[in-house]
Amino acid sequence: MRTEGRHIIMDASGCSPETLNDLEALKQILVDAAEKANATVLNVAFHHFTPQGVSGVVVISESHLSIHTWPEYGYAALDFYTCGDADPKIACEYVAEKIGAKHIHTTEIARGEEENGKYLHRIVNTKEAENEQKVSVLS
Hints:
about 20% helix; alpha+beta; S-adenosylmethionine decarboxylase
């Protein structure tokens, strides 16, 4: 069945608190992730909170990548939504590695499935991965 987009939601735990609080590093990581996923970056907007934490979005012609961080917990919440040839799995794996995630939980959603004139979404799979060396998002 044809879908309009692929959306991966990722919760990352055990991440580097320093990286999760570094706006410039996170901005570069998400831009690089978009490019590695074969996406075209259109705009970038990030904000650093006081006393800590970063929220940001990389708008791509294929949709967006976003991050919200809680350095005090070593936790990041991320969305990777793409359409076309961009591959959100590549972006997820790259970001998980760069922020030092020790554990991730992902849910992949097929977006924009047409059924009787209605557009719906469907959960494709949910996976947890834990690995000190490399976190694999989805097989």
